[in-house]
Amino acid sequence: MGDLCRALNARERTLHAAFYDHLGSSPKAYFKQLRLAAARSELLRAQRGTRVTDVALRWGFLHFGWFAHDYGQHFGETPSATLRRRQERPGATLRSRPSDRAA
User: 57, 68, 69, 90: least surrounded by Cβ within 10 Å?
Assistant: First the structure.
């Protein structure tokens, strides 16, 4: 957060207000949503042998229980279910399910 404030030459409080006004969430929550969406995208394109823990770590999720919880809240399925769907159809390009919320 400090780096972002310095880069934009803005106070943290100003940055928080701008995020809420334009994006409806805090900077921390917004960046978590971006990381969750990136992890989901990687799981949907995963090759055989890909592990959920490796994907989670690549996107900065260090606590796997919270990652699975947040992922499930956001997408309505577990990360392992997303990966399993992908691995059941290795040649297909999977898209997010229609019930998924936009990330």
Answer: 90
Q: What is the largest CA-CA distance in the chain?
A: 48
Distances (CA, A) of 6 to 1, 9, 11, 22: 9, 5, 8, 20
pLDDT string in tens for the chain (103-residue length): 889 889 999 999 999 999 999 999 999 999 999 999 999 999 999 988 999 999 999 999 999 999 999 999 999 999 999 999 888 776 655 555 544 544 4
Give the CA-trace dihedral at 8, 13, 15, 19, to 10 degrees.
180
Domain spanning 29-88: which CATH class is it, in words?
mainly alpha
Give residue limits of the domains in the chain: 29-88
| Cα–Cα distance, 88 to 81 (Å, whole number) | 10
pTM to 2 decimal places: 0.79
Distance CA 13, CA 26 (A): 10
25, 19 Cβ separation under 8 angstroms: yes
